[in-house]
From TrEMBL:
Native source organism of the sequence: Davidia involucrata
Pfam families: PK_C (PF02887)
Lineage: Eukaryota, Viridiplantae, Streptophyta, Embryophyta, Tracheophyta
Single GO MF descriptor: potassium ion binding
Protein name: Pyruvate kinase C-terminal domain-containing protein
Residue ranges annotated for the Pyruvate kinase C-terminal domain, each copy included: 22-112
Gene3D superfamilies: Pyruvate kinase, C-terminal domain
Superkingdom per UniProt: Eukaryota
Length: 132
C-alpha cells in the first residue's frame, strides 16, 4: 500500500535534490546563487546546504524578505517581478551589479524552482549559469 502523502514526499524530495545539486554546481564553478521566490522555500533549502557563495534571494513579498534575513548565507532583496522572466532576470542582475554585489563578467547560478512557480503554471526546476 502506498502512503497517502507520496506525491508531497516526492515533491519535497525533488526540491531537496535540486537544492543540493544547485549548491554543488555553484561551489564547483565558484559562483553566487540568484534565486527567485515568493515563499522563501527554495532559498531556505539552498541555505541548508551552505553554498560557498552568497544566495541572493529575490522576492516580491516584504514579509518573506524579512524572514529570509534570518538564514545563513542569504541576502534577501525585495523586487517586483515582471510578467516576463527574462526581464526580471536582467533587472535582478543589473541591480546586483549596481549595488556592487557582483561584477561585470562574473558568472552567477540562476535558480528557478518551486511548487508555486512564478512564470509557469506547473512546478518547475531550472538552473542556468549567466554572465553578468
Amino acid at each position: 500500500e502506498t502512503p497517502a502523502n507520496l506525491g508531497q514526499a516526492f515533491k519535497n524530495h525533488m526540491s531537496e535534490m535540486f537544492a543540493f545539486h544547485a549548491t554543488m554546481m555553484s561551489n564547483t564553478l565558484g559562483t553566487s546563487i540568484v534565486v527567485f521566490t515568493r515563499t522563501g522555500f527554495m532559498a531556505i533549502l539552498l541555505s541548508h546546504y551552505r553554498p560557498s557563495g552568497t544566495i541572493f534571494a529575490f522576492t516580491n513579498e516584504k514579509r518573506i524578505q524579512q524572514r529570509l534575513a534570518l538564514y545563513q548565507g542569504i541576502c534577501p532583496i525585495y523586487m517586483q517581478f515582471s510578467d516576463d522572466a527574462e526581464h526580471t532576470f536582467a533587472n535582478s542582475l543589473a541591480l546586483l551589479q549596481k549595488q556592487g554585489m557582483v561584477k561585470e563578467g562574473e558568472h552567477v547560478a540562476l535558480v528557478q524552482s518551486g511548487r508555486q512557480p512564478i512564470w509557469r503554471f506547473q512546478s518547475t526546476h531550472n538552473i542556468q549559469v549567466r554572465k553578468v
